[in-house]
Design brief:
Helices cover about 50% and strands about 15% of the residues. The protein has about 325 residues and is of the alpha/beta class. The chain folds into two domains: about 55 residues; about 250 residues, 2-enoyl-CoA Hydratase, Chain A, domain 1, CATH 3.90.226.
């Protein structure tokens, strides 16, 4: 509750205030000095109704805020909840280790897999180490090395996307950030093992797509996936970063939007109030989806997996010829 209270979003505050009152009344009731069970019941009913009203009709900007909530489960939380025997592998064998994009081999339901994901920090110190989940070129080159290793040993690849974007610093550009991302797209397109990518928070630009070329692309209900952040978009289009809310509506970056555009394959429901309200339940939902899709992909031959991925991404987008525009 402390983390939720500290980082409460504006539209969450009425619910959290009610929950505080409920907690206080329960503590009072536990002393046995007064019976407030009836009042607790009324407040719990009111909180549930309010939560339903607020979260049933969220705007795109509100979902952007939820996708960034610091209480949301991160990559390592999913690793702990869903996988066993996780062995992290480090370094790109060229320059350095990148703690913003990590991965290694693990077991999922007893079967060996490769898991990769962006990792943010919970505190300022952790975020400095993780670079706020924004990988540098060495992170993407490490990911490519691990994915090629997974193909060599015929291990399915499960990626978890959660980044505002690749780190745009001078050092990153000097070391070939764009090239590292581009090569990852090329390599992932040709890998002969099943690939499932799940957007669990922010899916920002090429920094997200660099580990997002999967046979199946899934998104949590309150995650986002876009070519640019709303703030970046508003700065470019409107010359005003404060118009991020307007930009978010134009970008259509929610899971529901992208499912309608057939960019993703499935929207994974979150617990009432968002993934940060019940990380364990969220992990169970993600695990069930991975299990189902992996079962479908395991029966495909290597050449069929590559062809399936090719068809999926080639089919994206709508193009109009000159005659149609006229």
């Amino acid at each position: 509750m402390a983390l939720l209270s500290t980082h409460a979003l504006d539209f969450e505050r009425p619910i959290i205030e009610l929950e505080k009152k409920i907690t206080e009344l329960k503590a009072l009731s536990a002393t046995g000095s007064v019976d407030v069970s009836a009042e607790i019941g009324k407040l719990e009913k009111k909180a549930k109704k309010l939560q339903s009203e607020i979260f049933t009709d969220l705007t795109r900007w509100q979902r952007v805020q939820l996708s960034r909530h610091p209480g949301r489960p991160y990559f390592l939380d999913y690793v702990q909840a869903l996988f066993t025997d996780y062995c992290e592998l480090a370094g790109d064998r060229a320059f350095a280790e990148d703690a913003a994009l990590i991965g290694g081999f693990a077991r999922f339901d007893g079967q060996p897999v490769l898991v990769l994901g962006h990792q943010k920090g919970r505190s300022t110190k952790e975020n400095m180490v993780r670079n706020f989940g924004m990988p540098r070129p060495e992170g993407y080159r490490k990911a490519r090395r691990l994915m090629e290793l997974a193909e060599r040993f015929e291990r399915p690849i499960l990626t978890f996307v959660d980044t505002s974007g690749a780190y745009p610093g001078i050092g990153s550009e000097e070391r070939g950030q764009a090239e590292a991302i581009a090569v990852n797209l090329e390599v992932m397109a040709a890998l002969k093992v099943p690939i499932i990518s799940t957007v669990v928070g922010e899916g920002g630009s090429g920094g997200a797509l660099a580990i997002g070329v999967g046979n199946r692309v899934l998104m949590l209900e309150n995650s986002t996936y876009s070519v640019i952040s709303p703030e970046g978009c508003s700065s470019i289009l409107y010359r005003d970063a404060s118009k991020a809310e307007r930009a978010a509506e134009s970008l259509k970056l929610t899971a529901k939007d992208l499912k309608a555009f057939e960019v993703i394959d499935e929207v994974l429901p979150e617990p009432a109030g968002g993934a940060h309200r019940d990380p364990a339940a969220t992990a169970q939902t993600v695990g069930a989806a991975l299990r189902r899709h992996l079962q479908q992909l395991r029966v495909l031959k290597p050449s069929a997996l590559v062809a399936d991925r090719y068809r999926k991404f080639r089919a994206m987008g709508v193009f109009a010829g000159a005659a149609e525009r006229a």
